[in-house]
Write a structure and sequence with these properties.
It is a single chain. The chain is an alpha+beta fold. The chain has three helices and six strands. Helix 1 packs across helix 2. It starts with 8 loop residues before the first strand and ends with a strand.
Length: 137
């Protein structure tokens, strides 16, 4: 495979530090989930990245299948803790389809195809629980 894009993120101080990108002026104040402090946590950034990637993958599937619809992709990320320091992520992907003549079942099949195409879905496959749902409005 050829590399289409590379980026590098750097964080100092973990969940209570700062993060930046080498190829952007984006700099984020990192805060632990639930701390009430101003900033963001890794789970929020993962949810945003996953939703953007998934919606783009759905766009590719839409072109391949010559389907017509608009979509909004929501990704909920859960950070869970088992015994001690046993941490795990889970994700729920929900896609809302609009402006389409597709049935809910037809749309769900396209969403499932996008789940096979999306690089984030491929990266998480077998590593975290991912639930994929959709609706047509």
């Amino acid at each position: 495979m050829k590399t289409l894009y590379s980026t590098k993120g750097t964080t100092t101080g973990g969940r209570a530090g700062s993060a930046s990108l080498a190829d952007s002026d984006l700099s984020i104040n990192m805060v632990p989930p639930g701390s009430g402090k101003e900033g963001n946590n890794p789970e929020q950034l993962f949810a945003m990245g996953y939703s953007a990637c998934f919606d783009s993958a759905l766009g590719a599937v839409k072109q391949m299948e010559k389907a017509k619809f608009d979509s909004t992709t929501e990704v909920e990320v859960d950070l869970m803790q088992g015994e001690g320091h046993d941490y795990k992520l889970a994700a729920k992907i929900h896609v809302i389809g609009k402006n389409t003549e597709l049935s809910a079942d037809e749309f769900q099949k396209l969403v499932e195809k996008a789940h096979q195409v999306c690089p984030y879905s491929k990266a998480t496959s077998g590593n975290i629980d991912v639930e994929v749902t959709s609706e047509v409005q």
